Structure formats: C-alpha cells, structure tokens
Amino acid sequence: MPRILIVEDEAIIRSALKRLLERHDYSVSEAASAEEAGQLELTGFDLIISDLRLPGEPGTTLIAAAVPVPVLIMTSYASMRSAVEALKLGAVDYVAKPFDHAELLETVERILHKQSMQQSPPPDITDAGGSRQTMIGNCVAMQQVYTRISKTAPADVTVLILGESGTGKELVARAIHQQSKRAKAPLICVNCAAIPETLIESELFGHEKGAFTGASAARTGLVEAADGGTLFLDEIGELPLDAQARLLRVLQEGEIRKIGSVETRHVNVRLIAATHRDLRALSKTGEFRLDLYYRLNVMQIELPPLREREDDVLEIADILLDKACKRHERTGLRLSRAARQDLRDYPWPGNVRELENALERGVILAEGHLIHPDDLGLAPATPRPHTSPVNASVSSSSGDKNAEENEDDLSLEDYFQHFVLEHQDQMSETELAQKLGISRKNLWERRQRLGIPRKKTARRPG
After folding, report:
1. Which of 44, 105, 174, 257 is 20 to 30 A from 191 (CA-CA)?
2. What are the backbone dihedrals phi and psi of residue 234, each rounded to the nearest 5 degrees, phi first?
C-alpha cells in the first residue's frame, strides 16, 4: 500500500484529503508544517503532498529534503509564477486549490506509477556477436521500457515493440528472449523489409523440393528453426498479406506448412514483432490483417525516440564514440564542449543510428584530440515559421511595465513564449529548460508548436 504524507496547515483540508486518499487504499500520514514534516522519515513515503504556503518555511523546502521522494505542491495562488517556481525547484507537479477530487487522484496515481517504473535496472544483453552489453539510459521513458521488459519476459506471450527506426527495437527483443524461460533456445531475428516479397514465405515457412522454379532442395523455414525459442520479426508491417495469413495460423494453431507440402507440423514459438508503422491504420486500408494485429498486440512496448531521452544522449554518445575510436584506431579523441551541446540540442530524426553515424564522421574528420561541431556534420533543424507579432503574448504596444504587471495572468503558452524570447540570447537550451522547470525535450516540442526557432547565438562560448 503506497504511503503518502500530507503537509497542510488547515486541519479541515488536511483531514478531508486524508479521507479521500484512504478511501482509495493509500496509507496517509499528516503534518501541519514543513518543520513538523521534517521530524518524520521523509524517505519512507512514496509521495509527499504539500501546500505551498505554510506557517514558517514554505512547502517547497521539502523538495530537497525528501529526495528521491516526489513532492506534489498544492497552491491556492494558482498564478503561473508560483507554479513555475515550484516546478523549477523540483516539484513533480502542482495542483491548484480548490482541486477536483478525480483530477487529484489521477495525478497521484500517475506520479506513483512513474515512481514504480523507475525501479527496474537496465537489462544486460548478449548481442549477435556474443559480446555482453547493457542497455543505456536512465530517463523515465527508458525506465518504463525496462519495467515492461522485466514483467513481460517471463510471461511467454506475444510482444509488439513500437518505435521509430533506429531506436533499438532488436535490443529489446534480445533482452526479452534472454530474460525468458526460452533463453537457452534459439532467437531467430528476421527483417521483413530486407527479404524480397517473392521469397519471404519460403524464408519463413520453408519449402519442399520442386515447390517452385529454383527449389532444387527442401528447405527448413525460420519459423521452424525457432521451434522452442523466440522468433523476432522486425518491420512486420512490410509482411505481404499471404505471409500474414500463414503467420496468423502459427499464432492461432501453432502449425506451419511448407510451400509445396500437404503436411503440417506443430511448432512452439514465441513471437516478438516490431514496427515503426501504425498497424491499426494499415488494417483500415487493407495493407495489414486486423485479426493478426490483435494477435500480435498482446503486450506492447513503446520505445521513445532519442529526442525525448534528454541526458541519455551524451551517455550513449560517449559509449558509441569509444567504439568508433577503437574501430579507427584513434584513441584519446574527445568531444568539444560545443560539440556536446550540439548533440544535446539536435532533435535526432534518425535516432541512435544517426547519432552513431555522426560520431563515426567525427572520428574520421577530427584533427587533433577534439571533435568539433563541423566534424559531426549535423544538418540544421528546420524550424516552423515564427508566429505573427500580433499573436505574441506581449505586443510591441504593451510596455515592459505592463508585461511585468500582467505576468501572473499569462497562460502557460504565453508565459513560455515570453520567457524564451526574452532570455534565449543569454541562455543555452539546457539553462532555459532548467529555468522553466521542464525537460529539454518539452522545450524543443513547445518551440516547434509555437514556431520559435532556436538561435545558435544562444550558446555561450566554451
């Protein structure tokens, strides 16, 4: 049962909130001030809900004291400034009083769910070459992936892995197989997009001698080769409809029939499929069987794109750089400060594969011991057109004085736009995100939505 601490000086609100949470199976403790809360073992709680304005020290003082326990701030001063300040100080979220009970419970559940997702360590994987490696990344999205892997692997169910190209879907498939009961059996990996359509049924299901022109000998298919183990079908959205029908029979009946044969044989295969395409949308256009989609989508794992993985980018870059240096026998190469900043700020449409290519270029082109931005050869991101000044949150006719006076009444988007336009010449992307209390990924997405291009001159000299 999750333990929650309520820090609120108004006894009526405190007791009402306690009753609400206890009705939903939470264990609740109370404190009337930050000082009183400080006398408790804060790290023993799963969540702290604190009012912002308390007698003595404000509720935000609990944020640092309770690390790593998340602190949800309540405030009746629902201004943008107080909310942003609380987030900048590290609050996990805020709710405005009087709050809606259903909304508060949903927020609590979401925060606790995220916390539980951060408890699974990155899995170790043996790659196709036999070398051992650990999946990289500690952001919330990757923690959720690790948790899904650890829970899904022993269950022996079909898994559908979703994600953009280059996000590491095969690594997830290997991790699931190697943590499953089938770990000692074979893992057969097939890229459906790499096999010609005329050959894919033969590759997957095998054929008898003379089944078609060129079939000079009988052949065992990859599905049969994976008997007892795991079959990983990457880019399954590219599978032809005839092959989809055969695969559906494997999932429904556990049977395969070679091309040119009248006999069927039973196989015991766990299927893991991956795609960057929307299979449900493809089923509406007749390109993918809806019944196969439902069979595949027993358990789903979605991989985040690299642009959403925040500080993971540099950790991945350092490991890939080390490998590239060994391949090209250029030990001692490092990324310059400006190059590291470019790697952090770039949106990575090609994900980890694009990052690996950029570092490969850098190792080849670098002179001396530092890799500079020009060596990486990153294409500039294309920003959306800037919004019209008429729609800006602070028009030229509104003086700076009026903007300052009305800042508390700005909407979230208005405040964001006003803050970024005012400070982006003096701050890096990381500093802007930290000041706004949001992630760099969130900053990048809002820039794109509002049409605020990132100025290269914002970066401070290294």
Report:
1. 257
2. -85, 150
Where do runs of H (alpha helix) occur along 10-139? 11-23, 34-38, 61-65, 80-88, 101-117
Q: Is the model's pLDDT at 407 over the cut of 50?
A: no
DSSP 143-171: HHHHHHHHHHGGG---EEEE--TTS-HHH
Strands 334-335, 230-234: pairing is: unpaired
Residues 6 or more apart whose Cβ sits within 8 Å of residue 153: 175, 176, 177, 178, 179, 180
Where is pLDDT greater, at 136 or 441? 136
Buried b (16+ CB within 10 A) or exposed e, 374-400: ebbebeebeeeeeeeeeebbbeeeeee
CA distance 20 to 251: 46
Intra-chain end-to-end CA distance of the chain, in Å: 49
Q: Whole-prediction pTM value?
A: 0.61
Instruction: Note whether 350 and 165 are within 8 A (CB).
Output: yes
Q: What is the mean pLDDT of the chain?
A: 84
- Estimate to the nearest angstrom the gap between the alpha carbon of 239 and the chain centroid: 27
| Half-sphere exposure of residue 227: CA atoms within 13 angstroms, side-chain side | 11
Is it true that the peptide bond before 380 is cis, omega within 30 degrees of 0?
no
pLDDT: which is higher, 139 or 306: 306
Split at pLDDT 50, 70, 90, the class of 399 is very low
| Cα dihedral: 227, 229, 234, 239 (round 10) | 20
- Give the Cα separation of 270 and 268 in Å (integer): 7
Query: What's the sign of the alpha-carbon dihedral 351, 353, 359, 362?
Result: negative
> For residue 413, what pLDDT is reported?
62
Pairing of strands 230-234, 187-191: parallel
∠221-222-228 over CA atoms, to 5°? 115
Tokens representing 366?
Answer: 């670098």
Tokens of 133: 């490696």
Measured N-to-C along each axis, helices 337-345 and 440-450 cross at an angle, to the nearest 10 degrees, of 60
